Amino acid sequence: MEKTYLPPIDSLERNWYIVDAENQRLGRLASEIATILRGKNKPTFTPHMDTGDFVIVVNAEKVLVTGKKRTQKLYRRHSGRPGGMKTETFAKLQVRLPERIIERAVKGMLPKNSLGAKLFTKLKVYAGDNHPHSAQKPQTLTINTIPGEN
């Protein structure tokens, strides 16, 4: 009978990584971040446990999209009231709340359950270069989302 691997809880090591979103493609960046949050890059990955690391994203306002997504991609939110649907294009949301773009992209790639909600709390997104997590000594993580560029 096959059993799911259970890593010892006391041996789980949580690292902090910092990712610079400047000139990165949104979807490719989000999928890499989701992989790290979930812990799929570790040999101790277990599907039903939180084995992932913390990720800090800086320069969220400088993330890129391809094609006509800047003007055609819509972000929707609803107040819960009748007629309370608000829509906003990528360009307008990037000016108003650039952090929300990366948060929404990553959240869509996490599990849709309580585990996904727990994993999402380990994502920290900031619009500028500064972040308040220097005490955690984050390691720089280089993600190359543009094929052919080094």
UniProtKB/TrEMBL annotation:
CDD domains cross-referenced by the UniProt entry: Ribosomal_L13
An example Gene Ontology CC term for this record: cytosolic large ribosomal subunit
GO molecular function, one term: mRNA binding
Keywords recorded for this protein, A-Z: Ribonucleoprotein, Ribosomal protein
Skewed-composition ranges (Polar residues): 136-150
Region of interest (Disordered), residue spans: 130-150
GO biological process terms on file: negative regulation of translation; translation
Keyword Ribonucleoprotein: yes
Gene3D superfamilies found in the cross-reference section: Ribosomal protein L13
One Pfam family, short name: Ribosomal_L13
SUPFAM superfamilies: Ribosomal protein L13
HAMAP family according to UniProt: Ribosomal_uL13 (MF_01366)
Protein task: This protein is one of the early assembly proteins of the 50S ribosomal subunit, although it is not seen to bind rRNA by itself. It is important during the early stages of 50S assembly.
Subunit architecture: Part of the 50S ribosomal subunit.
Protein family according to the UniProt entry: Belongs to the universal ribosomal protein uL13 family.
Protein name: Large ribosomal subunit protein uL13
Taxonomy of the source species: Bacteria, Bacillati, Cyanobacteriota, Cyanophyceae, Coleofasciculales
